[in-house]
Amino acid sequence: LLAMQMPTLFEGDITGFRAEEFSSKHLQDSSSDPFSFPHNTAVNLETFPEKLWENARVPYALDDKLTGAERMAIAQAFLEYNQKTCVRFVPKLKTDQDYVLIKKNKRLGCSSFVGRAGGNQTLSLEVEKCFSKGIIAHELMHVLGFFHEHSRTDRDNFVRIIESNVLPGMLKNFEKYSNSILDTLKMPYDYGSVMHYHKLAFSKNGRATIVPYRRKTNIGQRFQLSEIDAAKINKLYNCHNRFKGKITKIDTGPQTNKQLCSDSHDHCKLWTDLGHCKWSKKYMKDHCKLSCGLCKSDKTNAKHFIR
């Protein structure tokens, strides 16, 4: 987790913004009523409307130098979003002008822009330190327009920042942001968010820099999107209204071989190419039978799709 933090980057892993742009000195709220302040974690779309990805579609391109294992970690993070949100990371088309280029580096940590930056924006992942599903999911939330959880306007009600333990010059990474920068999502503070700093973030002495007021609470997990993370994404991208009907479960009743031998998702071929038929067997069996060559009685289709 500490490998994600780079002293030269805003908040350790955010590119495209200067710390002074978000300093509380320059972003004072006009309201004198502290109870009117919203609960913030996402970029304010009224201030930065261009930051949202249109139709919850995020085109991407992968660095040619990525290994199979590195591609697999990225695919697992994409699958996490596919299972929990309406956001879709899709291979870049020739017509896509704005897209995310996912590259690897050797010593530069993990970093991303916040929201859609315009043109080719890089998501950079350090070899052997950043290629896990949870860390990549964290960086992808930045891509979608989210800041770190501890940046919320109301964070002092939930955590205490121990400034004396923070590395010199790194207090900029613990800023709170004005509601002119961050939008109100009316979500509870999430200690379990994949976007929350670890308690030792930017520590100079191995002691906690962030202490939760709730006792025996762990912060800084980098395994998966929390339920609240997913709810925030779905709210920011208006996911509920993107589906005109309820998402139905796959029919498990009697089916013909033609019905069985089909894919229920547009990305099945991509996931097959990335190895998910092996690493995500249950999901792929349920949703991507055709691409994984699991239609055993149809030898032609199976032979065609086996990689």
Notes on the protein architecture:
Residues 261-295 form the ShKT domain. The structure is a single chain. This protein is of the alpha/beta class and 307 residues long. It has helices at residues 68-84, 133-144, 227-236, 239-242, 257-260, 268-273, 276-279, 281-287, 289-292, 299-305, and strands spanning 14-15, 40-43, 57-62, 88-91, 99-105, 112-113, 120-126, 159-161, 182-184, 210-212. The protein has 2 domains: 11-16 and 37-237, Collagenase (Catalytic Domain); 263-292, no CATH class. The chain is built from 10 helices and 10 strands. The strands form 4 sheets. The chain has a 4-stranded parallel sheet with strand order 4-3-5-7, covered by helices on one side. A two-stranded parallel ribbon has the order 1-6. Helix 1 (68-84) links the parallel strand 3 (57-62) and strand 4. It is globular, with a radius of gyration of 21 Å. Residues 6-12, 16-41, 244-260 and 297-307 have low confidence and may be disordered.
CATH second-level architecture of the largest domain? 3-Layer(aba) Sandwich
Q: CATH topology of the largest domain, anyone?
A: Collagenase (Catalytic Domain)
Straight-line distance between termini: 35 Å
CATH class (first level) name of the largest domain: Alpha Beta
EC number: 3.4.24.-
GO molecular function: metalloendopeptidase activity; zinc ion binding
Domain Peptidase M12A: 40-240
Protein name: Metalloendopeptidase
